[in-house]
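Forum: Protein Structure Q&A
Topic: Joint prediction for protein chains with partners

I've read a bunch of threads here and the consensus seems to be that you should model interacting components together rather than docking separate models afterwards. I'd like to see that in practice. Below is the full input, 321 residues plus whatever partners are listed. Could one of the regulars post the assembled result?
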Amino acid sequence: MTDSSQRYQFFDQHPEIADFRADILQGLSSSEPYISPKYFYDEAGSRLFEDICNSEEYYPTRTEVSIIRDCIDDIVEFLGKDCLLIEPGSGDSYKVRLLLDALRPIAYLPIDISKRYLQDEAQKLAAEFTWLNVHAICADFTGKLELPYHVKSTNKVAFFPGSTIGNFAPEQAVKVLEEIRMMVGNGGGLLIGVDLQKDAAILNAAYNDKSGYTAEFNKNLLVRINRELGANFDVEQFQHYAFYNEEQHRIEMHLISMQEQQVVIDDQDFLFKKDQSILTEYSHKYSVEKFQQLTEQAGFKSVKTWTDKEQLFSVHYLISS
Ligand code: AVI
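Posted by a regular:
Agreed with the consensus. Here's the joint model:
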């Protein structure tokens, strides 16, 4: 056991911080208005996301956790011990805790854009796992991914849980996977969680939970825009609308204006007609085969896929080829 401060290192790659105001003005000015889902996660949004994950209807989180728990020995066998374990978009590093004791990586490298949060969570982890080296990297995982130091012979494995990959359109998803592949290098691995195509009723319920957490999470975007940009959205006059688009194999989340209304941000006016939509998120669902094809386009080869009995969710181990 060593002092956690000796095992913790921080590397700041100074990611460009997105311009919230410019992004919102651009999205709302579009002929089909949209708001990027990356803006869901302010303090209230992150709390609501936790409530969603714990809700009865939202099966992905608990199913992925149970797949990892049930298959941990097999997972360790495939990944190999003593790897360098890298997590793009690590957040609170919740799911990696399921792997650490069994995997015993040489070091865990969480990557997150939010500096303060990353530092807090990474230091907590180093204190909790008294043997673990934690090398936190402040960077934007949707941009260029580079390790802060050169490691030659060590097996590098990226961990990308939660079906976050589904929030990217397939062409963008390939780019994100390509960046991960370049970071782990030839022969490096990727352990990734992906939500599966299934009965539309299960999907529709998961994004329309009875407690209303997803609706509040969606509407919180407007609360945030009002607070941070001094806008005047009448939040109550927008309705959460989420449905499974069977043709495109994706959940679409929208905010629908319940009446004609005008919103002002800075000196710009936005007119929303009754029933007009603001698109807030896509969540793509894959079959195991379709996802493997997508990863092949990014230069990965499928090694092993684990699913639950009901085939709700999948966890893939891929190797960069
Ligand atoms: C983070 N992401 C994988 C979630 C999803 O299911 O697409 C975000 C979410 N949106 C509504 N509920 C959960």
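The chain has a mean pLDDT of 96.
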